[in-house]
Amino acid sequence: MLADADGVVVCSTNADHLDWVERAADAGADVLCEKPLAPTVAEAEEMVETCRDAGVNLGVAMPLRFSQPVLNAKTAMDNGALGDLQFLRGTNRGKMPGGWFVESDASGGGAVVDHSVHLLDVVRWITGEEVEEVYAEADTRFHDIEVEDVNLLSMTLTDGTEFVLDGSWSKPDEWDFWGDATLRLVGTEGVVSIDCFDQTIKQTRDAGDPGIKSLYWGSNPDEGLVDDFVEAVAEDRPPSKTGADAVEDVAVVEAAYESIAETEPVAVEKSELTAPSN
């Protein structure tokens, strides 16, 4: 099957991303890999080098780049509407996914590795800055699992801007929606607030499947992600989110886990493979 494929989407456990990306590269197929690219920077760099050597394009599934609120915020930032950025606050709080996501050998961690990368990518993409230092705290408070389900990352960007991110699995199973993805950008000239999944209506039922649910009706960022990958394969170009760029997200997550273990801020090491953010 790989020999006949022009493009491959890797949706395996995080620990198996490297193996499947290497198989696709050996077959000459472009790759869109689920986030995070890998559990470690070393594996992520190996994937990038493998695809470069094979002459195939490697992308990473970051659908929030195609969310209309995020696109609006990037336009505002590019146009200077916010002035000088002063502070960022983000959330990506969801339900605990279960399955291999809570098995450290398969996932590489818990909520930090699973949820942080989405907003990390958005901030790096919108601002053009990298994360220079991270102080992180995490714990397991909501579920009987072996990995962390609550975390808070306090980061400093390369321009000195502070960025705080809550990426916890803190929504109960009975919550009316799977979770959220929000970001608030505070500048000297203005403020932009992003809520990627606020376009919902509430449905309340007392029969059949009783309870309250939120039904999302907004634009679908997943469609934008898939369309971009299909076009990238057809045009033989890198997808919007490249593997090289995603290495930096993994580096922040790796530094966050080091900070949790050492209970102190940790500098984020920049990869030599990293290309400038798109």
Mean pLDDT: 94
Helix content: 25-40%
Question: How many helical elements?
Answer: 7
Beta percentage is 15-25%
Integer-rounded radius of gyration:
19 Å
Low-confidence stretches: none
Q: Helix and strand string, N-terminal first?
A: EHEHEHEHHEEEEEEEHHE
| Helix and strand composition category | alpha/beta
Distance between the termini: 32 Å
Q: Let me know the largest β-sheet.
A: 7 strands, mixed
Provide an overview of this structure:
This protein has 278 residues and is of the alpha/beta class. The protein starts with 6 loop residues before the first strand and ends in an 11-residue tail after the last strand. The strands form three sheets. A seven-stranded mixed sheet has the order 9-8-4-7-6-5-12, covered by helices on one side. A three-stranded parallel sheet has the order 1-2-3, sandwiched between helices. Helix 2 (41-54) packs antiparallel against helix 7. The mean pLDDT is 94. The longest helix has 20 residues, at 243-262. 33% of the residues lie in helices and 23% in strands. Strand 1 (7-10), helix 1 (17-26) and strand 2 form a beta-alpha-beta unit. It has helices at residues 17-26, 41-54, 68-78, 104-107, 111-127, 221-235, 243-262; strands at residues 7-10, 30-33, 58-60, 85-91, 131-139, 150-157, 162-166, 182-187, 191-195, 200-205, 211-216, 266-267.
